Amino acid sequence: MIELKSLTKKYGSFTAVDSIDLSVPDGELFGFLGPNGAGKTTTLRMIAGILQPTAGSIHLAGIDLAEDPLAAKSKLGFIPDRPFIYEKLTGAEFLRFVAGLYGQDGDKVEHRGRELMALFDLEEWADELVESYSHGMRQKLIISSAFIHRPEVIVVDEPMVGLDPKAARILKDLFREYVKRGHTIMMSTHTLEVAEALCDRVAIIQNGKIRSVGTIEELRDEATGGGGLEEIFLKLTGERAARDAMEVLDA
Amino acid sequence: MRWKFSMRRKLGTEAVIGTILPVERGKDAAVTSTRPPHLVDHTTTVAPLTTRFRTSPTLLHVLSPKYLSAKARPLGKTESQSGRLILFLVIGAVFWLFVFGMFYRLLKYFRGIPEIGALLAAKLLGLMFVSLFGILILSNVVTALSSFFLAKDLDLLVAAPVDWLRLYGAKLLETTAHSSWMVVLVATPVLTAYGIISIRAWRSPRYCPSSSFLGRSGAR
After folding, report:
1. Quick one: A191 and A178 in the same domain?
2. CATH number of residue A28's parent domain
3. What is the pTM of this model?
4. Is residue B208 predicted with pLDDT exceeding 70?
5. What are phi and psi of A78, to 5 degrees?
6. C-alpha span between A163 and A148 (Å, rounded)
7. Does B65 touch chain A (CB under 8 A)?
8. Is the domain of A107 the same as that of A62?
9. What is the phi/psi pair of residue A14, to 5°?
10. Range of the domain at A42
11. Residue A209, H or E segment
């Protein structure tokens, strides 16, 4: 479960995230959509404990991140948009290292690591240095590292970037099975088809504020006019920009 | 340790996913706790500092990627890399011998100068320490900025349940090692030359212990 109460982040006079209230219950895959610079990544980085909120609170699996950051972070798996992996470590070493950060080691971790790498077709690369991995392989390794310690909550920023169709499909299955088991995923994405196909509920954020929250049907009703998520998104975030682009091309 | 992969994944994605993911929350809670299921995962309990420190990964574990990365450096694995390693060692040895020889001759010459010889050697040592101290301060400040604020692994470590003191300690050790290794390399032949000359002076029957502090030549 993820609970955000009046979450705010300010950089000087600029408010990146403006008093967000959100609750993502157990067993839900929640989509976080919004135009570039809307505050999605800032919100996710605050949930991961990387950024300190200016105001408000974050609860992960019922634990206040500010009060007990170690306990809250131990429940979380975070997949950033620009992940870092030590170049001179092998894939297996990296997974072992991440599991160790969460206080886990031993045969079970080894087994889980092997299974995760096999799932993403990385088994032949397990003992190769990460510097020889392609972008997609690195993304697969980062996703594997988020699952290695069996977190209760997963926060993921742009999960499908760089993945081939097979890996994307596996990831979708993995996410669906994960939430089916009562866990929580909060996912930021620009791929509206992915959000439409995967997410139970979606929030649209614009200028640091939540513009709308609900299921796709609820958003469709709110946007009055129906259509797919793309139309709803454009209506809620201001379709003028898209129209302007057409006018520029026509001019 | 190398991983061996079984053929079980060929059973299908779903079977493999089942083994990776945690068990269902309700089932998990029933096994690990006697609380009612609706209370199990939503009770905030703040662990005491000692417990938090104990459960946080060790300093060695936080530093392990640096050690493993250093071990994985390709020096000596192929023929061209072996050649590079040998060249590197030869250049290093020549540099060390050059610095050692230069200081050894200089200090031997100083020791031979009556009255002011030991003083000159002591002043030179002092000057060298002041210079190295200045270099270390500058180097530490620059390295600390990059390892504490600009390091790429910060997001990974901060998002994990690593105690801030452990993280700080790991970064401090990393900064110290990165900023000081070159100074250690340069200082070693110099201090070795000083050591050899000093030991010879101490063994001399005319050695005066106060000469080291008063600047009077002990071994004339």
Report:
1. yes
2. 3.40.50.300
3. 0.80
4. no
5. -120, 130
6. 19
7. yes
8. no
9. -85, 130
10. 2-75+152-250
11. strand A209-214
Domains of chain A: total: 2
Q: How far is A12 from chain B (nearest CA, A)?
A: 19
Residue corresponding to tokens 């866990």: A183
Q: How far apart are CA B110 and CA A53, in angstroms?
A: 63
Q: Are residues A156 and A185 in the same domain?
A: yes
Same domain, A17 and A121: no
User: What is the token pair recorded at A88?
Assistant: 């001179």
Q: Average per-residue pLDDT in chain B?
A: 78
Shared domain for A7 and A35, answered yes or no, is yes
Q: Do B42 and A61 touch (CB under 8 A)?
A: yes
Q: Are residues A66 and A174 in the same domain?
A: yes
pLDDT at B76: 56
A196 and A172 within one domain: yes
- Look at residues A107, A131, A150 and tell me which one is the last residue of a structural domain: A150
Q: How far is B95 from chain A (nearest CA, A)?
A: 29
Q: Are residues A104 and A21 in the same domain?
A: no
B161 in contact with A at a CB cutoff of 8 Å? Answer: yes
Rounded Cα distance between A10 and A42, Å, is 10
Check if A202 contacts B (Cβ < 8 Å).
no
Residue B161 has its nearest CB partner, among A1, A73, A92, at A73
Tokens of B114: 């009556």
Does B167 lie at the interface with A, CB-CB under 8 angstroms?
Answer: no
Q: Cβ of B11: how many Cβ atoms within 10 Å?
A: 10
Nearest chain A residue to B55, by CA: A103
The residue to which tokens 């070693």 are assigned: B188
Name the A residues in 108-127 with CB < 8 Å from any B CB. 110-119, 123, 126-127
* B52 contacts in chain A (CB < 8 Å): 68, 70-71
Provide the token pair at B127. 């000057």
Chain B CB within 8 Å of residue A76 CB: yes
Is A224's pLDDT higher than 80? no
Domain boundary at A150, A174, A191, which? Answer: A150
ipTM score assigned to the predicted complex? 0.89
Say whether A89 and B72 touch across the interface (CB within 8 A). Answer: yes
Q: Which of A223-232, B38-47, B56-65 has the lowest mean pLDDT?
A: B38-47
User: What confidence tens digit (pLDDT) does each residue in B103-140 have?
Assistant: 999 998 988 888 888 889 889 999 999 999 999 999 99
- B17, B46, B69 ranked by CB distance to A174: nearest: B17
B22 to chain A, any CB pair closer than 8 A? The answer is yes
